[in-house]
Amino acid sequence: MCKKHNNQENCFTHVDSGLESVMLNCIVNGEKVCAYIDPTMTLLNFLRKELKLFGTKEGCGEGECGACTIIMNGKAVNSCIILALEAEDANILTVEGLNKNGKISILQQEFIKHDALQCGFCTPGMLMSARALLDRNSDPTEKEIKEAIAGNFCRCTGYVPIIAAIKQAAKQERGEMKNE
Ligand code: FES
Ligand code: FES
User: Fold this and answer.
1) How far is it, in rounded angstroms, from Cα 38 to Cα 5?
2) Whose Cα sits closest to atom 4 in ligand 2?
């Protein structure tokens, strides 16, 4: 029974730690979020289970594969090894937040054009690492791109089309900026 949620039987915000729930306030994809959570809940579980943002994937669950990468306060981070609590007052961007006005972003379009995804499991994390890179460096070298996605494992593509897609997206985005 969950005292915080009208005695609901299956209130997953109070996982099984037995600890008192705590309030979390943050911004996710531009929207204010306020929720009571179990203090042991990971940020990944918060996004997927509480907010139903299933784009962020769980692979290893140990900070090794990058499938769960999101952007928190401008930095690409592995959400599986961060407690949701640590996101208090944070600004979070997930793959769902890359869309603008219902359209996929230039970066996503370039991934599609370059066949930079096969099974797609790594793609949300890869996109978020690439997004964080392009936000801090609009003209990255190939080496910088490789470094930025070094923590994101892909079992399918061999990385070459991913790197090409990121390079092309950077070019496109720079072009757009010039036209503004
Ligand atoms: S699921 Fe987070 S790094 Fe693998
Ligand atoms: S596309 Fe399958 S793991 Fe990258």
Assistant:
1) 13
2) 154
Q: How far is the CA of 69 from the centre of ligand 1 (A)?
A: 7
How far is Cα 169 from Cα 152, in angstroms, rounded to an integer? 18
Q: What is the pTM of this model?
A: 0.89
Strand partners, 2: 8
- Each residue's pLDDT tens digit, 120-167: 999 999 999 999 999 999 999 999 999 999 999 999 999 999 999 999
- Assigned token pair, 117: 């995804």
Q: 125: closest CA among 160, 83, 93, 90?
A: 93
DSSP for residue 51: S
β 22-28/91-93 pair status: parallel
Q: Which ligand is nearest to the CA of 57?
A: 1
Domains (ranges, CATH) in the chain?
Answer: 22-96 (3.10.20.30), 106-179 (1.10.150.120)
